[in-house]
C-alpha cells in the first residue's frame, strides 16, 4: 500500500524573539488526509508554529517543506488559515470582507464567497456589517475566509473560540465532511480537548516550545481505553490462563511482563485469584484508562516533575 503524501514537514524549527525561545527544535510531519490536533497550554508555541508554517513569521532556524516541495511561496497558496483572532474590517459586510480576501489571494470566481457563507451558516448575514456580528459569527466568518478556494491544507488556531455548543458541533461536522469527502488535510489547535478528541486522527503535544510527543488516535485510544493493567512474573502462562478463563475479553501482551485486559468489567480480585491459582506471581493489578484531557494532564505533570527534579 502506497504511503500517504507528506503534506507538511517541519524539521528542527526554532523561533526566538531576542532571548525568548518560543519554538525549540520542533519536528512535525502531517500526511495527506490527516486531522492533526496540536495540544498545548497557552504560550506553549502552538500559534507561533502555525505562523511559521503559514509564512506569517520566519523561523530563526530549521526548514519546512509543503506538499513535498521547498518553494514555499507557491505551495502556501494551497493553504487556508485562521490564526488567533480573525482579521476583519468591521465597517464592511461579511461579503465584502470575503471579496477582499478572495481578490488578494487570487481565487477565481465570486461563487466561492456564496459557497463558504453557506458552509458556515452565514448566508443570511452576508450583507450585514461585521461590527453587528456576535463573537461567534465573527469566528465563523474567520473560518469562512480560511475555506475560500477549497484549500488542500487547512490550518485553524482555536477555531471554536466564542462558539456556543450547537455551533461547535456544527463546525466539527463541517470539518469532518471536508476531510472525509474532499480529502482536506487539517492542522487544528484547541484548548477544548474533549472536542478535539472527537475530531483529530493524530495528536502533537507541545510544551515550552518543544514537541513532547506525536501519537495517532488509534495509539491514544489504546493507551486511554479503560482496561485492567496487570504486571506478572510469567507473561506467557498468565496470558494462556486469561485467554481460557475470559474468552469474551481482549487480552493483549505489552513489554515483557505487562498484560492489558480490555472489555472486563467485573471484580479484578477474580483475575488475581485465577492467576495465583495457576502459579503466576501478580506484581501489580488495577484499572487504568484516561480521556485525552487526563492523558495530556498526566503527560504534562510528568514533564514538569522532570523539569524540577
UniProtKB/TrEMBL annotation:
<protein>
    <submittedName>
        <fullName>ATP-binding cassette domain-containing protein</fullName>
    </submittedName>
</protein>
<dbReference type="Pfam" id="PF00005">
    <property type="entry name" value="ABC_tran"/>
</dbReference>
<dbReference type="InterPro" id="IPR003439">
    <property type="entry name" value="ABC_transporter-like_ATP-bd"/>
</dbReference>
<feature type="domain" description="ABC transporter">
    <location>
        <begin position="8"/>
        <end position="233"/>
    </location>
</feature>
<keyword id="KW-0067">ATP-binding</keyword>
<dbReference type="InterPro" id="IPR017871">
    <property type="entry name" value="ABC_transporter-like_CS"/>
</dbReference>
<dbReference type="GO" id="GO:0016887">
    <property type="term" value="F:ATP hydrolysis activity"/>
</dbReference>
<dbReference type="InterPro" id="IPR003593">
    <property type="entry name" value="AAA+_ATPase"/>
</dbReference>
<keyword id="KW-0813">Transport</keyword>
<keyword id="KW-0547">Nucleotide-binding</keyword>
<dbReference type="GO" id="GO:0005524">
    <property type="term" value="F:ATP binding"/>
</dbReference>
<dbReference type="InterPro" id="IPR027417">
    <property type="entry name" value="P-loop_NTPase"/>
</dbReference>
<comment type="similarity">
    <text>Belongs to the ABC transporter superfamily.</text>
</comment>
